[in-house]
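Listing S7. Sequence submitted for prediction.
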Amino acid sequence: MNTPLDLLCIGECMVELRGRHGAQDPRPMALSFGGDSANVAIYLAHYGAAGSSVRTHYLTAVGEDRYSGEMLDWLNHHHVGTESVSRITGKTAGMYLIEVDDHGERSFVYYRGQSAARQLFTDATPDAEEAIDGADWVYLSGISVAILTEAARAVLYRRLDSLRARGGKVVFDTNYRPVLWSGTAEARNVVTEVLRRTDLALPTCEDEQELFGDKDEHATVDRLQDLGIGEIAVKLGHRGVYVADGGDRTHIPAVTVAALDTTAAGDSFNAGYLYRKICGATAVEAARAGVEVAAAVVAHPGAIIEPHHLPPMPGCKVRL
């Protein structure tokens, strides 16, 4: 009997208000939900359910308001487990507004002041630590840690250390958003602490250049390998992906499509890469799968597209 692998995504899922065709469009904004790690969880859950190999769970905190409840229903609808999500009285889900220009590029405005997710790994979220203890793989991003208190980060670090000590894996995307940090020094220090606990890094070249001053993707790989990370895939936007696995380095070109909306391009790449990696693929095979998933996503509006638009992947039945 094959035992599914449990993958836990950690972060903040938010209420999303999306402009239709720019600020001058008189039609109302469309309401949905999204967030970097939540997007990864949903695409992973789609492939995991199809392949009967990966059970995807999401760890966050939400309020007791109507939209928080609808958010959990939305995650469950997409086959993402929410059994460890805490609901906190007096807090709400965060919210962001997104607009997409004529070239498919997006811009965001965030409202996070009362977000319940900021209380992860505190006394208000009693199930958070146990959720990591029950996982085989953990996925998180720079946003996941940026919203936490310093004390909560220390709790997270300890749990990640315990996870790796028993053979679990940590996957991290820097996903640097300056507005979430008190300054560059804090962001560098915290991100580096997570990277020291990372088995698979999935950064974006522009983020690494902005945060760490890396000259290019080669410099990023050098720095991350110096931290002890064995597998790295640096996202290069329209140039594709630069993959390093041990001493091997390979450039994988992007799949050329007419981009309608670049929202969740990186998140969907991460999900495709991670799913194939869990199923036993090489780093290069996983990267090729990731660029195919990302190409499908940017060719459609919104962060989460209908599953029938996604490229098929071979299912995996064996737990690794």
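Caption to Listing S7: primary sequence and predicted structure tokens for the chain studied. The radius of gyration is 18 Å. The chain has a mean pLDDT of 91.
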